[in-house]
Amino acid sequence: MIFGRVKPLDAILATAEKKSLHRSLGAFQLTMLGIGAVIGTGIFVLTAEAAQKAGPGMMLSFVIAGFVCAVAALCYAEMAAMVPVSGSAYTYSYAVMGELIAWMVGWALILEYAIAAGAVSVGWSGYFIGWLNTSFGIKVPLDLVRGPFDGGMINLPAMLIAALVTALLVKGTKESATVNAVLVGVKILALTLFVALTIPVIKTGQFTPFAPLGFAGISGAAASIFFAYVGFDAVSTAAEETKNPQRNMPIGLIGSLAICTIFYLLVAAGVIGTVGAQPVFGSAGEALSPGTPALSQACTAIQEAAVVCSKEALAWTLKSIGYPFVGWLVGAAAIIALPSVILMMMFGQTRIFFVMSRDGLLPELFSRVHPRFHTPHVITILTGIFVTLFAAFFPVGLLADVSNAGTLFAFAAVSIAVLVLRSTDAGRLRPFRTPAIMMTAPLSIIGCAYLFYSLDAKTKLIFVAWAAIGLLVYFTYSRARSHVGRGTIEVHEADSDLPPSSVPPIPGA
C-alpha cells in the first residue's frame, strides 16, 4: 500500500518536545532572517541564464517564482511549526503519507542540496575566473573553467572550491553567527551598489521586445529563477522560536519574499536597462539553450559582447557601463560569500542522509561519526565527491534546474501533507495554521507543478531517471531494512536528530 508504513507523528513529536526552544522572534526578525537566507547565489549567477531564456521578460519570471514560493512557504510553515525536527520535508512526509512517499521526497532532496551545491560551485568559478582576469590579467583557458556541455573540458576552480568545503565539513570548522551576518551583509551591500549605479542610467528602449521567446520563455526562466529563492524555508523552520506565530509567520514569510522580489526586479531592471538582455540566437535564427556548446560558439562569434554570455553577469554589467572597480568589488563579494552557501547546501545534504540512515533506509555506515572530528565523515566525503563531479562537468543552469526539480517535488509533497493532515488529524495542535488552506495549498501544488512542467525536457528526463533509480534502491534495499517496517519506532535524545557536527546551516542560497 502506497500510504503504508507511516511513522507515528507522536513518536516524532516526542523528540521535538525534548528540545523546545524559546519563542523570541518577532515579525521584523523573521523578515530579516528571510532576506538573509534568500538573497545570494541565484541573483549573482542565474541572471544571464534567465536573460537567454526570457530576455527582459525575466522580470515577470521573478514575480511568478516569488509567488509560488510564497504559497509553498505558508504550507511549509504549518508543518515546520507542528513537527519542528530535522529531516525537513522527508520527516513531514513520513508522518503523513508513509514511507514510500517519504523515501521519494528524501531522494528528491538529494537533488535539491547536492546538485545545488554543484551549481553554486560553478557560479563561484565564473566570478573567480573573472576576478583573476581583472585583478592580475590572468587568463585561464576555457577548457579548464567550463565543463563539456558548456564548450570546455573540465571546471577546475569549481572542483577546487567543492573539495575545500568538503574538507571543512569533515573537520567540523565552526562558522560563527557574526561571520554569517557579515557575509549576508556583503552580498546585500554589493547588490545595493549595483542597483544604485544602474537604475539611474536605464534606457527604456532596452526593454523591447519584452518577451522575445514568448510566455514559454518567461515560464522556463521562472522555473530556473526559482533557484534564486531557495532558502526561504529557513523562515518556516524558525516557527518554533516565533512569538505569536499565527501573526508573525505570514508577515515574515510574505514580507521577506516581497522585499527580495522587489530587490531582484531592481537588479534585473538594472541589467536589462543598461546593457540589454536579449537572447543570443543561432545562425538560422533559432533559440539557443543556456549552457550549451552552441551558445558558447555563438558568444565567441560576437566576442562575448552580451550579458547572456557572461559567467559573472552583474560584475560584467558594471564593467560595461564604466564602473570597473565596483564590478571588481561585486565579483569579490560573490567570491567571498558563495563558499558559505556551498557549505550550507552540503550540510543540508548530510543532514537528510543522516536522518534517512538512522531510519534504516540507507546503510548505517552513512551515519557513522568520525572519532576525532565528531562529524558524519563518511557521508560528507561521499557527498563531496558527487558535488565535485557535478561542478566539474555540468553548466550552472542545468544543475540549478535539476536542483529545482527536486525542490519543487518536495514542496508539492509538503503542501499535500498539510491538506491530508488537516483532514485526518484535524484536532492536532498547530502553533501556526496556513491561512485559507483550501486555496493556499492547491495554489502551491499547482504552482510547483507549473514550474516543474516549465523546466526543459532534459531536466525532466533527468528527474524521472533519478526517481526510477530511487524506486529501485528502495525496493531492493531500503524497504527490507526500514526500522518502521520492522516495527522499531525510536524516540531520539534532544540533539541526536542532527549530525554531530559543529557546522551550523548558513543562510544565503
From TrEMBL:
PANTHER family xref list: CATIONIC AMINO ACID TRANSPORTER 4, INNER MEMBRANE TRANSPORTER YGJI-RELATED
The protein's name in its UniProt record: Amino acid permease
A single Gene Ontology CC term: membrane
Organism (species): Sphingobium nicotianae
Subcellular location: Membrane
Record's keyword terms, sorted: Membrane, Transmembrane, Transmembrane helix, Transport
InterPro entries registered for this protein in UniProt: AA/rel_permease1
Domain of life from the UniProt record: Bacteria
Ranges annotated as spanning the membrane: 27-48, 60-83, 89-106, 113-132, 152-170, 182-202, 214-232, 253-275, 325-348, 378-399, 405-424, 436-455, 461-477
One of the record's GO molecular function terms: amino acid transmembrane transporter activity
Membrane topology note: Multi-pass membrane protein
